[in-house]
């Protein structure tokens, strides 16, 4: 697969390309998947996100990636590392990890498998001293995965985002240090 960045037992993680908007929109931009992420995005928002991610990868050597199932080649997730860029966050500029998995592939361990590779990437070649992940209390699956990955809840990093629905506020954060990850 061209633009391969990471690989796990069942998954390949690759750079996002200019022709990936339709696939992203069809597979990952659904009401259920986007429920705690501000809702379904408009096509121009996906295009902007992809452009920003491709520019970041070119500049910094990391960004979010598309995750494909090896067995089928199907797109199953979108995950990776980016900078915390919400101006309301108290830790703008930290390395942020995140993920979105298509609904028909939930509960198969794909997010856990992909994020273990992403965290190794963050602490290895990227050189992050620590990573954070953002979610909300109502996104139970998300923060449970953060805990499964060994991340620690950081109430001191919570913030309210008026652009998000009340049910998804405040934004909460978990963190994980390099040493903590290596000594797990």
Automatic annotation (TrEMBL):
Question: Which superkingdom does the taxonomy of this entry point to?
Answer: Bacteria
The N-acetyltransferase domain extends over 11-179
Listed SUPFAM superfamilies: Acyl-CoA N-acyltransferases (Nat)
Tell me the InterPro entries matching this sequence. Answer: Acyl_CoA_acyltransferase, GNAT_dom, N-acetyltransferase
Q: Which Pfam families does the record cross-reference, listed alphabetically? A: Acetyltransf_3
Name of the featured protein = GNAT family N-acetyltransferase
Record the organism.
Erythrobacter rubeus
